[in-house]
Amino acid sequence: MYAYDEIDRTLVNERVSEFRDQVKRRLSGELTEDEFKILRLQNGVYLQLHAYMFRVAIPYGTLATNQLRALAHVARKYDRGYGHFTTRQNIQFNWIKLAELPDALEDLAKVGIHAMQTSGNNMRNVTSDQWAGVAPGEIEDPRIWSELIRQHTTLHPEFSFLPRKFKIAITASDHDRAAIKIHDIGLRLIKNEKGETGFEVLVGGGLGRTPFIAKTIKHFVHGRDILSYIEAILRVYNQYGRRDNIYKARIKILVHELGIEKFSREVEDEWRQIRNSSLEIDDEVIEDIRSRFTYPSYEKLPHMPDELRQAAADPDFEAWRKNSVAPHKVQGYSIVTISLKPTGGPPGDATAEQMDALADLADKYSFGEIRVGHEQNLALPHVAKRDLPALWKALDKLGLATPNVNLITDIIACPGLDYCSLANARSIPIAQELTRRFANHELANLIGRLHINISGCINACGHHHVGHIGILGVEKNGEEVYQITIGGRADENAALGTLIGPGVKFDEVADVVEDIVEAYLALRERPEELFMDTVKRLGVEPFKERVYATR
Amino acid sequence: MTSPLEQKKIKIAGPSVVTANRTWDGIVVYRTAAKGWSAELSEAAIVRNSDEARALLAESIADDVGAIGPYIAPVQIGEDGKILPGNLREQIRRTGVTIGQPAQV
Ligand code: HEM
Ligand code: SF4
User: Fold this and answer.
1) A478 contacts on B by Cβ (under 8 Å)
2) Which Pfam families match (chain B) (predicted)?
3) Annotation: CATH topology of A306-397
4) ipTM, two decimals
């Protein structure tokens, strides 16, 4: 867990009173919507179809139980009893009243939660691996660096009025769970030959209308130089970024237009000038941040406790354990992923009751800590293996033990036309139908790892470009039509999917996915060949043939 | 969402209303003939040609304290005179999400 210091607490509280005043002036008509819009966007407040939406940051996906309870409280008191966890370690409330927002913000501020960096053309919430600090083989806890960047960029004038929003993600494991290659800046924590911490820096990733996979701009930037290097990138971006055209304003377009070589030369020039400035980070600063992250006092526990051995006889428990429970860096402990993808449910939603109950379980079984990942699931990062059977039973009662993590029904979907004012088509009902079609666990298990991503418009909040199967909703003659891509991926081998053919209607999407899956099952060479690998081996043609043969 | 300014150029193709979100709580509202806002589509002022539409929109935009983001939306008038949303987006805005909220699933 991370403990905020006095400066942060003051900042967060000041922010609440400032916003309270702004809302008051807006409601009295003293501020027009035009004047107010930028202010509300700096506090995470959007307008959706039915109401305002309030987006709250969960920096690097780490939550304490009192914070999760505060989110449950906001859901219950100011919203309709639930929240939606997003792909960028935020939570959204869909029905909040503007007049009550200052109270909600104040309630959250009491537990150190805020909505800064969740919207607007500024530096957004720096995201990280939801297994940070507990994943086996991790080089170092990436959240220390996420926090450093968060502190440096929060309300920093140079990062508050960028040409467009700006997103950074950090990972410190070989397997990238933070999707760094689709971020404006992706940082991969590594060590140099001397054993010093630094980063491989990637730049220019992003999805939306013009998707790009990030490119490596520098193979090693020393940890002490990371702020000046990021600042150099942002200066080049601030200087050349297209403020005149919202569709061309993201850094990915600039990197693409200048080319990575020229872009990196510009950054290098800029960096030379600021490198040895006050931006150089003292070890003390890092140590100070490090000391604010506390880790549990783990017990010495056996690798295979009796409780686990006994529970293994229960096939339902085993089904859950096999895909929800991951190895922990400490023997005798596990990382448990909590699926927010129940059959027939909207992906990523959790009710206030579930949040409260999960907070209790985290207190009991996970040293009071919860994590939020970009797949719109939660995790308990420190569960003793002997507690797994009891935890599973409790989760099951709450509807939080769907055994589908990383399977075909573990779908990422944006809010789409059910909520979002930019949407062309619905996303959530498509996800719901797919979870029903593939509800049979044996079938889902037979299919194996397969990620479906759904977006309701080209902005790609559901990351459809990098879904193994990607579904994009568009509008054609007043009707919802869906374009299907296959072969995308969001991990360390990130790739954009390929369109398989003409769009299909709302009612046909689930059938098409079934066809694709059947084709895969028939085409794979052996059961271990994952969908991704079959697509890689054979290309999209056989899938296309199968889908369009009868359509 | 199409901005009101762009809509000034737009000609309407059939009966339309002006809709927006109420400022203090964000709920969906419709401009009424009495120059106010109502949560009921049945109380919306119907415009039938582009001049009327532009005038209703201009008047709605001027009421910035009451509601935000006003725009012209198509409606259908049923045989019984009932006003119905003219497209899926407006239907969802009127009747709510089509997904069941998590508590209902
Ligand atoms: C009212 C709701 C929302 C609005 C208005 C909105 C708007 C947008 C827009 C305009 C973009 C494209 C930005 C660009 O290319 O410059 C975008 C991207 C994105 N949104 Fe949303 N969004 C909403 C909800 C969400 C939700 C619920 C999630 C998570 C589930 C999300 C996650 C993302 C992500 C990850 C991207 C990045 C894609 C990229 O790299 O360009 N957004 N959003
Ligand atoms: S992808 Fe489009 S429809 Fe989905 S949340 Fe983003 S802006 Fe809205």
Assistant:
1) 87-88
2) DUF2849
3) Sulfite Reductase Hemoprotein; domain 2 (3.90.480)
4) 0.89
